[in-house]
Amino acid sequence: MKKIIIPLLVFLLSFGAEAQESGFLNHLSAGLQLGSDGVGIELASPLGSSFRARAGYSFLPSIPYRKTVSAPEHPGAVGSAKGKDIPVDAKASLHMSDIEVFLDYYPMSYNGFHVSAGLLCGSRKVVSIKNVTPLPDDYNIVGLDVDGYTVKAVRNTIEGYIATNSLRPYLGVGYDIPISSDNRYSLSVDLGAFYWGKPELYAPGEPLIGDWKDVRVPSSTLNGRDEGLVEKAERTSFYPLLGVHFYRVLF
């Protein structure tokens, strides 16, 4: 991540100094942000009188969520009405980190209202999932058949994750509020959403011959034992983004 952020900062600083006389990038602000995508740092600079460019990095600290779900006592009974279910404690952890680039357009130069478009780039894995209660020993041998691969436990544990697109286009609106008389300090509130595609559940699968690989596990194969949580996740193609940004003009 440092290999991307440090050259970006150097580029903005050097290019901004050279472009001051042209009216572009003639100011540079540093900011802190807090929002639904976590906390982060940001650099912002005007592009003439109607546009502003922003670039930064944000991360969401891991947020764990535990829930008791049902699992067949014998994995070979998946999908069978005769299969006996047992309670299993599972843990899901949400974690995101993104490099962000935005372009703000100010239709009215005399106030801080702006329309924003941007692009976020981050890890495909946004939620990690694993069972906390050890699964019966049968799960180390028999599992769920998915496209010729067997999703089964390793040492009585199955670890999976929910993945999305790594590139996420954003669209939103915002408003800037000066908080000092010399306009060196300001707040900006932004509201929008980014599109990250269809979230999908993956888990390691073992083939008859060859190496393990992560295979997509459709919600339909879970037979409702997850209480529809994966199906709900698959329908969440947009992630709402509400953020508050605090800026200080550097020069």
Task: Write a short abstract of this structure.
9% of the residues lie in helices and 53% in strands. The chain has 251 residues and is mostly beta strands.
Report on this structure.
This protein has two helices and 14 strands; from the N terminus they run αβββββββββββββαβ. The chain is elongated, with a radius of gyration of 24 Å. The model is unreliable at 15-22 (pLDDT under 50). The chain has a single domain, classed as Porin (Beta Barrel). The protein has helices at residues 2-18, 229-234, and strands at 29-35, 38-47, 51-72, 85-105, 113-122, 125-131, 144-146, 149-151, 159-163, 167-178, 185-195, 200-205, 213-216, 238-249. Strands 1-2-3-4-5-10-11-14 form an eight-stranded antiparallel β-barrel. By secondary structure, it is mainly β.
Question: Which helices and strands occur, and which strands form pairs?
Answer:
Elements: H1 2-18, E1 29-35, E2 38-47, E3 51-72, E4 85-105, E5 113-122, E6 125-131, E7 144-146, E8 149-151, E9 159-163, E10 167-178, E11 185-195, E12 200-205, E13 213-216, H2 229-234, E14 238-249
Antiparallel strand pairs: 1-2, 1-14, 2-3, 3-4, 4-5, 4-6, 5-10, 6-9, 7-8, 9-12, 10-11, 11-14, 12-13
List its traits.
53% strand; mainly beta; Porin; eight-stranded antiparallel barrel; 251 residues
